[in-house]
Amino acid sequence: MSQDISSDVLVIGAGPAGIAAATIAAEQGLKVIVLDDNRQPGGQIWRNLSTAHHPSTSKRHPKQQALDRLYRSGAQLLTRRVVFNASASGFAEALHETATDSNVETFRFQQLILATGARERFLPFPGWTLPGVFGVGGLQALTRAGYPVAGKHIAVTGTGPLLLAVAAHLVAAGATVTTVAEQAPMLKLAPFAASLWRQPAKLVQGARYRTKLRSATYRTGCWVVKAIASPDSHTLSAIHMTDGTRTWTEPCDLLACGYYLVPNTELAQLLGCALRGSFVQTDAHQRTSILGIFCVGEPTGIAGLEAAIMQGKIAGLACAGKSTPKLLRRVMKQQVFAKNLEYAFALRQELRSLPKQDTIVCRCEDVTFAAMQAYHGWTDAKLQTRCGMGPCQGRVCGPAAEFLLGWKPPISMRQPLYPVPLRALSSPLASTSKVAINKIEGIESTKERI
Question: What's the average model confidence in pLDDT over 16-24?
Answer without folding.
Answer: 97
